[in-house]
Amino acid sequence: MPSIAAHPAGRCSRRRSVSIELRRSPLTIAARRTIACPTCRTRTVTPTPAGGTQGKVVLFTTCYGDRNVPEVCEDLAAVYRHNGIQVAVTRAERCGGMPKLELGDLESVAVAKDGNLPELLRWVRDGWDIVAPVPSCVLMFKQELPLLFPDDEDVSAVAAAFFDPFDYLHRRHKAQRLNTEFATSLGKVSYQVPCHLRVQNIGMKTKQVIELIPNTEVMAIERCSGHDGTYGIKKRFRAASVKIAQPVVRRVEQADADHFMSDCPMAGEQIALGLDGVSAIHPLSLLRKAYGI
Fold this sequence. Notes:
The protein is an alpha/beta fold and 293 residues long. It contains 13 helices and eight strands. The strands form two sheets. The chain has a four-stranded parallel beta sheet, sandwiched between helices. The protein has a four-stranded parallel beta sheet with strand order 6-5-7-8. Helix 3 crosses helix 13 (283-291) and helix 5 crosses helix 7 (153-161).
């Protein structure tokens, strides 16, 4: 069943107790189940290393992917398996720590790091790469933790194995290991590039992969959604958050595209709130749609 945030009484209770503006902000509803990823439990594939990738990944589902958009995790697994990439799911994980980092709570960041490293290291030492469906979580493991703990060899090992999902696919495409047989085109796609993806300095790999689909044009919008983790749903900052999102909202409206996508589910929902009749969709879900799988 949905979380208490979905119930009017629960929304008001939370709003009063922690000063969160839920009436006009993206509503985070925890899914009834955690990620089951049936695609990950089907027959295994034989991994083929290519383009600096091992051809087998463990999926760090993230808090949001696990409890709010498990379908995105399943779409990732389906797309990867369609491309001959073996997919597994972590046995256990906890928040990567980005929300705590943005609040300056470095002690909690260290606790989260110590809770995740043993599980992730087990996979890395067995030769697996790691991917996650939320840019903030990829950024946390690839850049933020190595900056905070520069002398921790385990942090460095995990960071070296951690990939943005579209960067991973693009690397394999350059090595001629990406399936480019698509069942349908996507037409015009309006694309908000999340801040935490841009700061990874890997280029627009999502745009480049999606544009491999015939008759598909991606119009990138490199502006902040205004969500910024927990800040965008706090009463104190909500008005400013909505104002920051307005330039993106206007550009999506003007584009009149067939689809609107963002790698960050929270950023996508934030922008979609300002649009009439437009829903945000994750690029992995669009890619699966194009493959017809």
